[in-house]
Amino acid sequence: MRGDSEKLKRFNMVVVPSAGRSLYNVVVSYHFLYAAAAVLAVVLCLNALLLTGYIGARGRAGAFGAANAEESVEELNRKAEELSVELEQVKEIGQRIQDKTGISVEPDMTERSSEEGYDGLSSRWSGADGADYAALRMRELDAEVESRKQALLTAERRIEKKLEKFAGVPSIGPVRNGEVSSGFGYRVHPITGSWEFHEGIDIRGDYTTPIYATADGVVEFSDWRHGYGKAVGIDHENGYFTMYAHNSRNLVREGERVRKGQIIAYVGGTGSTTGTHVHYEVHFDGRLQNPVKFLRVDPRDLDKF
C-alpha cells in the first residue's frame, strides 16, 4: 500500500532519443513540479510588476517632461515679452531722434509690420514644439533689438558730426526775442535820407541787452569801426562771417575763440545810429546774406546752409 502511495507521488517520463539509442526513463516528483510551477508563477508576476512599473515610470517621465516643456514655454514667453517692450522703447527713441534731426535710424533689416508684434505663444503650440517656437521668436526679437541699437549708435555718430557742423552755422538771433526794426536790402537811410543798401538787419534793445555769438568761431576784430561804432566780427571758419555793431561795450578780444550763445557785447548806440540797437550782418564766402533766415535755424535745415 505504501509502495502504491509512493508511486502516486512521482511522475514518470519516457525519453525517446534519436534512432539507434536505447530509451530511458525519467522520474520526476510531483513536489518538484509544484515547486517549479510556483517559481514560474512568481517569475511571471515579477515580470508583470516590473513591466507595469516601467510603463508607469515612462508615463510619469513623459508627464514630467511635458510639465517642464510647458514651464519652459512660459519662461520663454516672459523673456520674449520683455524684449518686445525693450524693442518698442528703442523704436520710440529712434523716432524722436529722427523727428528732431531728420536722420533716419531705421536698421538695415526687413521691418515687421505693426500687426506682427509679439503677442505670446499661440495656444496651438505646446510642449517641446512650443518651446522651440518661443525660443525662435525670442531670438528674432533679440536680433531686432540689437540691430536697432546699432542703428542708434550709427545715428548718434552722424548726429555728432552734424552738430559739429551746425555749431559753426549762424542759427540763433544775436538778441533774445529782439524785434527787427530795419530789414535787409535797400532803404532810406535814417540819418542821410539817401536810398542805400542796408547790409544787415537792426534789432532793438537797450544798454542792458546782451548780444550773443550766433555760431562758434574766432573773433576777427573787436574795436571801433567807422559808422558802426564799437563792433565785433567773428570768423566761423567754414565760410561764414558775422558782425555785430553799434555796441555799448565789447566783451571779447581779437583772436579769442567763442561759442554759439556766448555773450560777446551789449547793445548800444555808438556810431551812426538814431537809437539803441544791434546791427547784425551775415556773410558767406564773402557774399552778403539776409540775416533773417539765420535767426532760427533747425539742425534738420543744415543742408540748406
Q: Span from first to last CA?
A: 136 Å
What fraction strand?
15-25%
Shape category: rod-shaped
Oligomer: single chain
| Parts with pLDDT < 50 across at least 5 consecutive residues | 110-127
User: Portion of residues in helices?
Assistant: 25-40%
Mean pLDDT: 77
What structural category arises from helix and sheet content?
Answer: alpha+beta
**N-to-C series of helices and strands:** HEEHHEEEEEEEEEEEE
**How many domains make up the 3D coordinates?**
2
How large is the radius of gyration?
Answer: 48 Å
Topology, number of strands: 14
Q: Characterize the largest beta sheet: strand count, sense, and whether it forms a barrel.
A: 10 strands, antiparallel
Summarize the structure.
The radius of gyration is 48 Å and the shape is rod-shaped. Helix content is 39%, strand content 25%. It has helices at residues 2-8, 30-101, 127-167; strands at 10-15, 24-29, 180-182, 185-188, 195-198, 201-204, 210-212, 217-225, 229-235, 240-250, 257-258, 263-267, 277-284, 287-289.
Describe the protein.
This protein is of the alpha+beta class and 305 residues long. The protein folds into 2 domains: 1-167, no CATH class; 180-304, Glucose Permease (Domain IIA) (Distorted Sandwich), CATH 2.70.70.10. 39% of the residues lie in helices and 25% in strands. Strands 3, 6, 7, 8, 9, 10, 11, 12, 13 and 14 form a 10-stranded antiparallel sheet that branches. Strands 1-2 form a two-stranded antiparallel sheet. The protein has a two-stranded antiparallel sheet with strand order 4-5. The longest helix has 72 residues, at 30-101. The radius of gyration is 48 Å and the shape is rod-shaped.
